[in-house]
Structure formats: structure tokens, C-alpha cells
Amino acid sequence: MDKLGKILPRVLARTPNRDRIIEAHIRTSFAAVLGEQLAGMCESIDLRGAILVVRTSSPALAHQLTADAAPLLERLNQMSPGRTVTKLQVRTGRAAR
To answer: What pLDDT, on a 0 to 100 scale, did the predictor assign at position 97?
Structure first.
């Protein structure tokens, strides 16, 4: 039996709205990598191509995410078949609504 991680990219390639599904999975996976408390401090988590853009109102969290970007992205990419995130961009301040 094939592991899900091996067959999921093939299944997603044939799925309508594939990009939306992958983006939602990446956002959910990143929140899981951060943990509930830290993910709750993020105003938004958006995927723009291969760049994950995270906005937080906490300068301390922004600094820590920037410092830990490489291991965070490594864990995220292990959890998210279908697209590789190559860069983490962290912004501070509240998102415009």
C-alpha cells in the first residue's frame, strides 16, 4: 500500500480547485507547526506563489519567526506535499480590513 504522502500529489494534480486546497493545507500545517498559542498571535497566514507571508502584531513573534524561518519551512514542507514553500516573509502590524 502506498503511503498517503506519496500518492497525494498525484490525486491533487487531478482535483479541481487544486491550488486552493494546497494553500489551505499549507496554512493549516503552518499553524500546526507553530502551535495553537503562537498561531493565534498571527493576524494572517497567506501563500503567494512559493512565499508564505505571515502578519503578526507582535514584534517579538515576528523576530522569532524570522530567526527560525529555515527549520519552520523545513517542517512545513515535510507536512505539505504538492507545493514547496521557499521563503517565509514576516510582517508586523495589523492587516488592513
So the answer is: 54
